[in-house]
Design goal:
By secondary structure, this protein is an alpha/beta fold. It has 15 helices and 7 strands. The chain has 3 domains: about 5-165, Conserved hypothetical protein from pyrococcus furiosus pfu- 392566-001, ParB domain (Alpha-Beta Complex), CATH 3.90.1530; about 195-240, no CATH class; about 250-295, no CATH class.
Length: about 300
């Protein structure tokens, strides 16, 4: 395959990986099953095991039930992809939802495309299939990208080709992993968007990051408003200074003056912002009346 042609194929994502002859040639099929390699055949579900490299751990049960209903009515429209691990026994490579939904309605067989793949290829295809889902949150995408880099030893350029995305897009997702874990969780739960996250990345201090994140949540800040707040915080750090102000010191001569005037155990309390209260106990209304007259003079 010419280099330019291969580059175009990689840009198509999972479909390119599944049909890339260079990848197919990297592992040797069992001689007895050469006739099924590269073909779609009906395989008993009991002879297929789940992919141990599956990066996805959460499956929406309602969506699975909807898919199962569709399969019961129309059958499995798109075959799953498997690899042979031993004669007549297979391991799932791609199509986890279709596989689970089919099992849930107790289908006996499922159409499957049989191909050869080593462990690394199986992991890569599972990751790429996961990335191409429509319901992924930004952090899940970023984690899948990072795992492709770490476990499959891809560069960012190679990764962008594999998933059919611009390198700048891949980089923007990966940068989200630098955010505080609390913010990452908020993004996964839908409290903030990727746009909010990209703005917060520009704040290095994690405490300030979290402070702005709390403002986004409490005030419902838009991405544009968040970007403006981040910009102002960077140019004028005092605008969002999260350091605890120094406690207010009550001068001893102030306290002494109050105690001398009222001749009682006066207490003065003040918070770090300078606000507080004066407590003056009295033992009778006559004492209080005398203080009032004293103050009027």
């Amino acid at each position: 395959m010419a280099k330019s042609a291969k580059k175009m194929a990689l840009g198509k994502g999972l479909s390119a990986i599944l049909n890339d002859p260079d990848l197919n040639s990297q592992s040797t099929p069992n001689p007895a099953t050469k006739t099924v390699i590269g073909n779609v055949i009906e395989i008993p579900l009991e002879r297929i095991t789940e992919n141990p490299f599956q990066p996805r751990t959460n499956f929406n049960e309602e969506k699975l039930r909807e898919l199962a209903t569709s399969i019961r009515e129309l059958g499995v429209v798109q075959p799953i992809t498997v690899r042979e691990i031993e004669p007549d026994n297979y391991q799932l490579v791609a199509g986890e939802r279709r596989f689970r939904a089919s099992k849930s309605i107790q289908l006996k067989t499922i159409p499957a495309f049989v191909r050869t793949a080593n462990d690394q290829e199986s992991l890569e295809m599972a990751l790429v299939e996961n990335i191409q889902r429509q319901d992924l949150d930004p952090i899940e995408i970023a984690l899948s990208y990072q795992r492709l880099i770490d476990d499959v030893s891809l560069t960012q350029n190679q990764l962008s080709e594999r998933v059919g995305k611009k390198r700048s897009t891949v980089t923007n997702y990966l940068r989200l992993l630098k955010l505080d874990p609390i913010i990452q969780t908020g993004m996964r739960d839908g409290f903030v968007s990727m746009g909010h996250g990209r703005a917060l990345i520009n704040i290095e201090d994690p405490n300030v990051q979290l402070g702005i994140y709390e403002k986004i949540i409490s005030k419902g800040l838009s991405v544009r408003a968040t970007e403006e707040l981040v910009k102002k915080t960077k140019s004028e750090p005092e605008v969002f200074d999260l350091k605890e102000p120094a406690p207010t010191v009550i001068k001893t001569d102030w306290l002494a003056s109050f105690q001398q005037f009222f001749d009682k155990g006066v207490k003065i309390k003040a918070n770090p912002n300078g606000k507080g209260s004066i407590q003056i106990p009295f033992d009778s209304l006559d004492t209080l009346q005398s203080w009032v007259e004293k103050i009027k003079k």
